[in-house]
Amino acid sequence: MVATVGGVGYAPIASGTVGSLVALPLLPPLAVLRGRAPIAYVALVLAIVGVAIWAADLAEDALGAKDHSYIVIDEVAGLVVAGIMIPGTWLAAVVAFVLFRVFDVVKPFPARQIDEGVEGGLGVVGDDLVAGLYAGLVTCLLLAIV
Q: Fewer CB near the terminus (10 Å): N or C of the chain?
């Protein structure tokens, strides 16, 4: 249930996008937490990433496939990582969401290498963490330009 984010991963099409949509409304409130209680924010983000790696690892074994499409907790972790550096606005959250999906599909260096070369939950989640970092950085750049 954790790896599929309560069953969201069973969406018949675009399960990764649906999984990312679960994390989208978390970004503005998480930004508020970041501003008010940075230590709690860091602990929460690390907990989300840690649980994602653990759950993805177990789910790969249970589902019998590497990075099975039902596993979407990695998308949640990746988008939450994108939120580390963006402002707590809905515009920023939506831009980060779109960019995260692009980077998650394209898998720029070193995301593809992590996805293909790292086994278990870290391999499942690692490429999404990279996509999240890229999405957060590019979102900040775009918002600074606009």
A: C
pLDDT in tens, the chain (146 residues): 999 999 999 999 999 999 999 999 999 999 999 999 999 999 999 999 999 999 999 999 999 888 899 999 999 999 999 999 999 999 999 999 999 999 999 999 999 999 999 999 999 999 999 999 999 999 999 999 98
* pTM, to two decimals: 0.94
Q: Please, where are the H alpha helices in 24-145?
A: 27-36, 38-63, 73-82, 90-106, 111-117, 120-145
Token pair of 9, please?
């991963």
